[in-house]
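User:
Can I borrow your eye for a moment on a structure tokenisation matter? Would you put together a sequence-and-structure record for a protein of your own picking? Please set it down just below, with no commentary around it:
AI:
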Amino acid sequence: MAQRGSYAKGIAKREEILRVALEVVARNGFRGTSVKELAEAVDLTQAGLLHYFDSKDDLFTAILRTRDQVDAERFRELDDVVDQLIAVIKHNAETPGLVQLFASMSTAATSDPEHAAHEYFADRYVWFRAELATSIRKRQASGEVRPDLDADTLSAVLMAVSDGMQLQWMLDPTTDMAAHVAFVWQTAIATR
């Protein structure tokens, strides 16, 4: 019985670490956040913190997964994944540290198949493109979106525009990421 209690405490501590880490990274940025600072924020040593993760990169990947879960919950009342995408992008402007984390980790993970976040990003892009394409097809079936558009291509383009606008926004925070993605979406679906 003690083992189950210990396991539950470990899960609870890991969830606490990730909740606090989201706040710290959002506030301080990826480069401005150390494992030491995260450990101190949850009353652990660095070794104690990393006991819950395979590596520093695994910790930061878990933070990204948690961010995705929090965003999914935050915007679940929006029925359509395209609307959710635009809402998340708008929200990202309020969490620059997490955008920096996403951009840094995605660059490292795509260039190294052994990176802790490689599978996360590969799966995320496949899953999210499929979700966008399904949404586009539903809108095509209802007559809201032009039927001549290739849903898979448009979903890939929307993802690329989203990522590209994040990079531009990191260089110039006055850039309205969500407005640019919404513009591409509206331009693509506009009737001729």
Notes: Residues 42 and 78 are 33 Å apart (CA to CA).
